[in-house]
Design brief:
By secondary structure, the protein is an alpha+beta fold. It folds into 2 domains: 1-173 and 287-384, 3-Layer(aba) Sandwich (Rossmann fold); 191-280, no CATH class. The protein contains 13 helices and 17 strands. The strands form 3 sheets. An 8-stranded antiparallel beta sheet has the order 2-1-4-5-6-7-8-9, covered by helices on one side. It is globular and about 70 Å long. 37% of the residues are buried.
């Protein structure tokens, strides 16, 4: 589980910290930084994958677009804290240089022990010994090769340790769908490689690669709200592209439709549910209510809250909040706002006294709808 992130100098995130629950929901006014937080999480994941150029190109950004215009700093500093039942608390931190597009400084710590250190073009990797409190020093080498992101994106498994491999896998498997769009969901692709893509553009291939069992499981989930849905099918075209189709039953008649003919809400639910079933450890969804009929919101939130994976979503809809139990809302709803300098800040919504008081009498969504968000920062200022 990812416990928290700290990031400094990423767009409006300056000296920013966010604690995560198993299900975390970001709320706030337009422009408060909700989407930026998702982008920052995807950026941290990309550092472990290594191809920063490709990530920037897909988002139509340059490296100059990701640093904050609110400071004079150049590097983006970060810290990610994970908690694991076997390894304990793992902290990965570093400094990303926008010119070289790599982490020129980087550390991984377990407790007080530094397992990885990159500084001044020297890499040190330490291995925990079997004796408590002792470490071994098996590897130290100059960094003479070029790479993007984290040095862990380039090192082979036999050059690292179990902890570093676990960390790398956890960050690589942060899966973002913050650019999810109906047009991209209808795209035909040849392969998915276990990824839906930021906009869901690999959906057809992703479902195809899930096999018969995966398609049947997805159909069974969707049939709870789309009762006429009889099957989900994919086929490989002569060109190698995969096409997504559904079969619906209306009385005695069966109708087959391709992705190009499906409604937007069904496609979005397909993408979200198939991603939940993929067992990725951390999933990101922006404006989760988009394109989903109000009567399906409860079904969707129930699946997200009860997913085995960790989930981070944003929303503008009080309805989303109203389908959460109070304890889920208290632990996971985070209010984002910008201070007078334009810097994004976060606070758990029900750590704000007036919000906690209202929750005694109202549902979470009713509290949200009953609040003037434009003036809420004034109460928050009095808490510091």
């Amino acid at each position: 589980m990812i416990k928290s992130i700290k990031i400094d100098n990423f767009k409006s995130l300056v000296d920013f910290k966010l604690d995560f629950a198993k299900f975390t929901c970001l709320v706030g006014l337009n422009g408060s930084g909700k989407s930026t937080v998702l982008q920052a999480m995807d950026f941290l994941s990309q550092l472990m994958q290594g191809d920063v150029d490709e990530w920037l190109e897909f988002r139509h950004w340059t490296s100059a677009d990701i640093n904050s215009k609110l400071t004079k700093k150049s590097n983006i500093d970060f810290e990610v804290t994970l908690a694991d039942a076997v390894f304990g608390e793992i902290v990965w931190s570093g400094s990303f240089n926008r010119v070289s597009k790599c982490c020129t400084q980087e550390w991984v710590k377990v407790g007080e022990v530094t397992l990885l250190e990159v500084d001044n073009s020297i890499c040190k990797i330490r291995k925990l010994s079997d004796k408590p409190g002792k470490t071994l020093f098996p590897l130290m080498f100059p960094v003479v090769f070029e790479y993007q992101g984290s040095i862990l994106s380039q090192l082979k498994d036999n050059q690292t340790t179990d902890v570093l491999q676990f960390l790398k896998l956890a960050l690589i498997n942060v899966e973002s769908l913050d650019l999810l769009s109906p047009e991209l969901l209808r795209t035909r692709t040849k392969t998915a490689g276990g990824k839906l893509g930021l906009g869901g553009e690999k959906l057809a291939a992703f479902i195809h690669e899930s096999g018969k069992d995966g398609k049947e499981k997805l159909q069974q989930q969707l049939a709870k709200v789309y009762t006429q849905l009889e099957s989900i099918e994919t086929r490989s075209l002569p060109s190698g592209f995969k096409e997504l189709e559904i079969v619906e039953r209306f009385g005695e008649q069966k109708i087959k439709s391709s992705a190009r003919q499906m409604n937007d809400g069904l496609l979005r639910l397909m993408a979200i549910l198939s991603q939940i079933e993929s067992a990725k450890p951390f999933l990101l969804f922006d404006e989760i209510e988009n394109g989903i009929n109000p009567e399906l919101i409860e079904f969707l939130i129930d699946r997200l809250v009860n997913a085995t994976t960790q989930v981070l979503v944003t929303t503008h809809s009080p309805m989303i909040l109203n389908y959460m139990e109070d304890e889920i809302a208290v632990a996971g709803i985070v209010y984002l706002y910008k201070n007078n300098q334009g810097i994004t800040r976060s606070i758990k919504l029900f750590d704000i006294p007036s919000m906690a008081e209202k929750l005694k009498f109202m549902g979470p969504g009713e509290v949200f709808a009953d609040t003037d968000l434009t003036n809420l920062y004034q109460e928050i200022d009095t808490l510091h």
